[in-house]
């Protein structure tokens, strides 16, 4: 069980349901009296939900219209007549017409689906790649935030946004969490940096509020910085840091 001073480091693990039952109970009691931890839990939970949502797949919206258009373009065959010697009834004609229409609909559906199969396979493959990337990202975030040696530092940018960095020396990774980041503007982006004792090393781009896994290891880093850069990022910072936080030793 962690001491009271260390409960602040459990926000990520709590949001990911990675605490032991005893720690979970103690941390929930801690949340009632700690607004900063409550805010961090909300931010981590929102990020985890957004990543998990990327794993859902929906059928393309144009598929229904393509199938219906294909059915309308198939010429109807004349009704099949019963064999000679059997009376022709209205019910029999309706039954056979229904059978023909069902066959035509099936053929049209098969033709349409065959025509779009290549496109659908490509889109499915792209969607699966996105799902796999999201799952890997969520696993990496979970590993850092729930690590036994996870440590959190908090800060505020020059624009007033609240930020946190969760780092794990054992995992050799760090996670940046931002809330209230203003729109960087057209042609601009937020960029993260590792401060290697005075040398700034690119650590990835930040697209929006939430959690971002920093790119690269933290073994040589003494801090984490955030700057506003041209779209696509820079090799070296081109503006004054909006934020610079020291990493725990």
Describe what this molecule looks like in 3D.
By secondary structure, this protein is of the alpha+beta class. The protein has helices at residues 11-15, 21-31, 35-53, 62-72, 90-145; strands at 151-156, 162-168, 173-179, 188-196, 199-206, 210-213, 223-230, 243-246. It has two domains: 62-143, no CATH class; 147-249. It has a four-stranded antiparallel beta sheet, with helices on one face. β2 (162-168) and β3 (173-179) form a beta hairpin. α4 runs antiparallel to α5 (90-145). It is globular, with a radius of gyration of 29 Å.
Précis, in short:
The protein is α+β, with helices and mostly antiparallel strands.
What distance separates the N and C termini?
22 Å
What is the average of the pLDDT values? 76
Strand order of the largest sheet: 1-2-3-6
Order of helices and strands: HHHHHEEEEEEEE
Q: What is the number of helical segments per DSSP (H or I, 4+ residues)? A: 5
**Which stretches of 5+ consecutive residues score pLDDT under 50?**
none
Number of strands: 8
The main β sheet shows up as:
4 strands, antiparallel
The amount of beta strand, in percent, is: 15-25%
Looking at this protein, list some descriptive labels:
249 residues; 21% strand; 4-stranded antiparallel β-sheet; 8 strands; alpha+beta; 2 domains; 5 helices; globular
